[in-house]
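Incident review: delayed structure delivery

Summary: a single-chain prediction request sat in the queue longer than the usual turnaround. Root cause was a stuck worker, restarted by the on-call engineer. No data loss occurred. The affected request and its eventual output are reproduced below so the record is complete for anyone auditing the incident later.

Affected input:
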Amino acid sequence: MPRRQPAEWEQHSAVVTAWPSAADLWEENLEPARAEVAGLVRAIADGGRGERVILLVATDEARRSAEAAGLGPGVELVSMPFGDIWLRDTGPLVVVDEAGAAGAVGFRFNGWGGKYVLEHDAEVAGRVAALVGLEIVRADWVLEGGAIDVDGTGIALTTEECLLHENRNPGLSRAEVEARLAEDLGLDRIVWLGDGLQNDHTDGHVDNLARFVGPGRVVVPVAEEADDPNAEAFDDAASRAEAAGLEVVRIPSPGRVERDGVVVPASYMNFYIANTAVVVPQYASRQDAEAVAAIGALFPGRRAVGVSSASLLSGGGSFHCITQQIPAATAGSSDTRQVEP
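Output delivered after worker restart:
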């Protein structure tokens, strides 16, 4: 029976995310990053009115920290080993068939082309699938969840920079990549954008560049300042999406955001669409409030919530990067479980 990857705005039974746990990775940003994850979790759980949040903690110290954070109702802590928190890329992707039955697909993970290979990350997909009660099918090629964005009808956005990069699947042609996306995720139309954001260690993940906000409808940033390092990439993405027949909505970019004098890939596109809210990363840019309002207008019936993500960005990503939604009626029991290494 044909399977498809649902759009993110479809109803979720749960979302799986993770608590920053490795002091050697986060260093002075550990506690600030934890505070930002806490803000994300509270917005998603929405006082128990939103979706169930399964929060992975890798160590006893991390569990104590998360427990002390006052995350509120609707949040479960699950002990599970992982390298770092980027579950969009290390976790499984969920597909559903025409009868509504769900399954998980686990792709090979190679640390974004060998840049950050951490112990346990390669096992996260299988462990998360088992945790939520889904049978997992293994796909023998490299794909990170943040490299694609789907509208639920079989259309996907991706970038040439990432999916055709030689450090992922050397030897696979564009046509072969498209065939594998069709076979594994039910994606029968791929819209190829060009390059991603400057200094993005993911080699241009599309969830920092452009996102679906409805069937055939895409939101792409627009540079409002002359020194925006991604102005050309944004305009090229919008042009390609329009040429593919998609409706394009432009909203402000956060502009040039630097850390220690180096441009970092700050993007409002890394929002997470929850059942009752859309959580939008904030970077202390003058466009922050405007971006929250603009994204909120695209999702009537959901609250748009701006949450600081500046410290998370020191690790290379934001809210979409650390979440993996489980479509409705597919999550396992609400019991907190211990997953052994």
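Verification: The longest strand covers residues 12-18.
Action items: add queue-age alerting; document worker restart procedure.
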